[in-house]
Amino acid sequence: MALRMLCSSVLRTGTDIGVSNARTFGTAAILCRRSAPLGPMPNEDIDYKNLESLEKYRSYTRYLKKAEEAKNTPAWWKTYRQYQEQEDPGHGVERANIGLPHCRPSRVKEARVRKRVVKENRRSLELERAMRLRTFKVSLDRVQAGWEETSGPYHVQRLADHYGIFKDLFPMAYFYPRFILRVSYGQDSPAQVHYGNHLTPTEAAVAPQVSFEAEEGSIWTLLLTSPDEHLLDSEGEYVHWLVGNIPGGAVTSGEELCPYLAPIPAKGTGFHRYVYILFRQEETIDFHEDIRPLPCVSLSERSFKTLEFYRKHQDSMTPAGLSFFQSQWDQSVTNTFHNILDMKEPVFEFERPPVYHPPQVKYPHGQPLRYLDRYRDGQEHTYGIY
Questions:
Q1: Mean pLDDT in each 10-residue stretch from start to end of the chain (386 residues)?
Q2: Nearest partner of 222 among 214, 230, 231, judged by Cα
Q3: For labelling, which of 97, 109, 372, 377 has a CA lying 20 to 30 Å from the CA of 84?
Q4: 136 neighbors 121 (Cβ within 8 angstroms)
Q5: In 3D, which of 308, 180, 187, 310 has the Cα closest to residue 249?
Q6: What is the pLDDT of residue 17?
Q7: CA–CA separation, 371 vs 386, rounded Å?
């Protein structure tokens, strides 16, 4: 009776204002009547009055223990680390630092020096005027010198790791190049060797000018090798230049153990790495076993391994400098093989496998518009011409 009176009042009100709410009210009532039950609520089976019985929710240590057990459970798939260890067994293994010892300056002292320099710059009227008039210039030589003294060796070490220098020349070892090597080819238009830049074999045809900062009375060894050139041994190298017992920084006054040979990257083999390594000697070394017979124009006589050379003299020398470049075949390589090495030039070509095309269908769906071009010259039937 009450529901009937309520519906009558709603109809009467809607008629007075010109709006009929009867259908809306009826639809809402039907939807409420037809809605499915909500079912059991989450965690309604938990006895909240007896929380002591909920062991799995009470102890976080137990959860960590279960998670550790699940983590150590062997799975059928391989992780990224397992793939890396399969391809490179030495991946992730700690390597030995065979370079010169170095004590990194205290960060507190660096911060104090930087703070003092900032104060001096703020008090400088000339610097303020140059910045305001936009005439201030930064000396790139000072920037380069600051980089070489601070973070330069660490950046060069990371670059050498990126190019695989240590992996191929000093397996399971590395070093920080504390001495910066400056290698320059040519006189008129000098081509500098940096850390992975590209030089042509024509530019590196003759021995370069090498300089580095050395103390008076120090003794050095300079090596130029290529880990990518050997034609018979994939793990071997060809030594291009070897000079030992260099007094101070005078490379021309050292004992030339192997004369200079221009880069010979074979045609079709891409870019090759050519690495300069500077060793600091503790004393004068007898290199009579490492001297190559002159004029040393045979590749078999230039077969070399940097690791064996270092192990032989590791008690008397330490790697201290590093520089390298990349080179690709050009016409001068042919001249080097024919006229200097007196041998046939090796040429490599890549044989591409034939392109695979799936069997042709008469009504291709989802294929590009030029679908039939794949089968025009083949043995398979071509359904029409478009």
A1: 53 49 48 63 73 64 80 80 73 83 80 92 92 91 89 93 93 92 84 93 93 91 94 91 92 93 93 96 92 90 94 93 95 94 91 81 84 72 54
A2: 214
A3: 97
A4: no
A5: 180
A6: 46
A7: 10
Please give the Cα distance from 199 to 193 (Å, whole number): 8
DSSP H/E element including 334: helix 331-335
Whether 169 and 310 have beta carbons less than 8 Å apart is answered as: no
3-state DSSP call for residue 85?
A: helix
Rounded CA-CA distance 386/373 in Å is 10
Task: Assign a CATH topology to domain 154-340.
Answer: Phosphatidylethanolamine-binding Protein (3.90.280)
SS3 of 222, please?
strand
Assign 3-state DSSP to the chain and report helix, strand, coil percentages, each to 5.
Answer: 35, 15, 50
Q: Residue 94 has which token pair?
A: 């700690």
Taking the C-alpha atoms of residue 259 and residue 244, their distance in angstroms, rounded to an integer, is 12
d(CA 339, CA 370): 51
Which residue's structure tokens are 């639809």?
Answer: 27
The predicted structure's pLDDT at residue 226: 94
E strand residue ranges, 160-201: 173-174, 182-185, 191-193, 195-198
Q: How many CA atoms lie within 13 A of 30 on its CB side?
A: 6
- One-letter amino acid of 135: T
Cα(159)–Cα(322) distance, rounded to whole angstroms? Answer: 11
pLDDT at 22: 44
pLDDT score at 80:
78
Radius of gyration of the chain (CA): 38
370 vs 202: CA distance, rounded Å:
45
What residues contact 111, with CB distance under 8 A and at least 6 apart?
A: none
Count other C-beta atoms under 10 Å from residue 205's C-beta. 16
Cα distances (angstroms) measured from residue 274 to each of 192, 198, 224, 354: 13, 10, 7, 35
> The tokens of 156 are what?
């060069």
- Beta-bridge partner residues of 272: 327
Rounded to two decimals, what is the model's pTM? 0.69
Burial of residue 377 (CB within 10 Å: 0-12, 13-18, 19+) is: exposed
Instruction: Find out whether 156 and 177 touch, Cβ atoms under 8 Å.
Output: yes
Domain ranges of the chain: 154-340
pLDDT at 101: 85
